[in-house]
Amino acid sequence: MSALEVLAASKIFNQGTTKQVDALVDVSLTVQPGEFVSLIGPSGCGKSTLLRLIANLLEPTTGSVSVNKKTAAQARLDRDYGMAFQQAGLFDWRTVSKNIELPLELKGWEKSRRETRAKEMLELVKLPEFADLYPWQLSGGMQQRIAIARALASHPPLLLMDEPFGALDEMTREYMQGELLRICGETSTTVVFVTHSIPEAVYLSNRVVVMSPRPGRITKVIEVGLGATRNEDTRAAEGFFKGITAVREALRGTHAEHAAANAVRGVEDR
Amino acid sequence: MLARRIAYRSSMFVVAIASVVALWELYKVVGPQDGGKLFGVSILPRANDTAMPHIWSMLSRYGRPEVRGSDTKIWSVVLSGAFFSLRLSLVGFFLGTTIGVGLAVLMSRFRVVQRGLLPYLVMSQTVPLIALAPLVVSWGGKLEIGSFVWPRWLSASILGTFLAFFPIAVGTLRGLASAPAAALELMESYAASWKQTLFKLKFPAAVPYMVPALKLGASGSVIGVVVAEISTGLKGGIGRLIIEYAREATGDPAKVFTAVFGAAALGITMSGLVALSDVVLMRNRPKESST
Questions:
Q1: Phi-psi region of A38 (alpha: psi -120 to 50; beta: other; left: phi over 0)
Q2: Which residues of chain B neighbour A93 with C-beta distances below 8 Å?
Q3: What is the mean pLDDT of chain A?
Q4: For the domain A1-79+158-270, what is the CATH superfamily, name and number?
Q5: Residue B147 domain-assigned (yes or no)
Q6: What is the pTM for the complete model shown?
Q7: Hey, is the C-beta of A132 within 8 angstroms of any chain B C-beta?
Q8: Rounded Cα distance, A21 and A14, in Å
């Protein structure tokens, strides 16, 4: 059983007008439960659009998306996924703990149950002492950890992330990557992860989906076999560099095709 | 932090009052006694004691009886007048807040309503209050809803409402629209209902916009009530005192100022009440946005 299935999905904005944009054309992708899949590609390749189709924040123009064997719309209504964005997007007027409780409040959980779960989530992201602070009193990395805790608070089987570490500095970023793997391992969550960074995609993923723009589509899917336990040594391992080279070459391919259009703008080669 | 800010604000308030007093008395010294004329048109106010009484004679007037031979000191008359008007203003302010916030929610929910209604709201504020006051009184007098009889004071409150609702509606509308797109997307990803999004995201995000709007609304409701009292001759309030005392300006020039200060104190009290809510509502917000 697949956790997520995208079948021949296309998304065309402003169809039939002069401003028509083929954001995504004929994209198919299947993700297995517990798998970590990254979407990488230059700006305008439709990776964020694909994530929003999965989240049912956008409807596909053609094709279909199913999550947990349900339509994407039903999965959203059933809160089958959590989502995290580049900006942590915590609510300034709520304490850290209340921010984590937000999705539970919307589901109608009662207070004591919410508080217990928020506490568990804070333990999970290793910030239990910050429960009663306000988000603006925390560093960017801490805020992002709280955002992940919020996304996972109702224990959804699927986590969708749109460049969640894009605004963090390199050191914090690597630490967060390790934390994310640990958290997803402990909760056996399936992850779809949009990123600009090649090493980030390779380090985190079971599979890296390389996409190219105009029109947005999947050009290559690269299997990365770094094993279940990854640590700082992994970043020096041969498999890691092999993966980076493979992804880079796949992106170059898209670059060659679109050299005139300066397509790799936006891909961080680090 | 908070104590320092309050101390700073109060000291600025004292400085502002002191400089107005100083300017007033300075003009009395240097200004022409019978007014300044330029090409036969008087442009400078008369500086004599009838037109511009000394500040201390205004203040000492508070301690003397309202009318000669009476036992009631004028301060108690002005105080009870101000209190009467304060109650009317509060009624007007609460009605104005309800209507203003209600309209803002309606406008933010339906684009069509916003486009259709907003121009009329703007236009409504160009109607002169003086013209409107007698109309509201006569409409109110004709109203019969069961056993409900329209009290005369309610007309004055309604005019306060009329001035209060507009800034509140516009400010709240802007505030509701200020919720960031990413936060709205987040609520959508949680399949939150419109009501949940309104109360858990849009209203909290609107607070920094609503507080200044409510301050404007509070002083607006005072102006509306006082003007309505003056133009409809409603007894008991500070507005009525102002016209009554103004008639005695030649014989007792300081008297009218006691009522004018009463009206000013009323306005300050109203916006002070709102400022207090500001301190309470914004206590946990990031300091940059609360200034």
A1: beta
A2: 204, 207, 284-285
A3: 85
A4: P-loop containing nucleotide triphosphate hydrolases (3.40.50.300)
A5: yes
A6: 0.80
A7: no
A8: 7
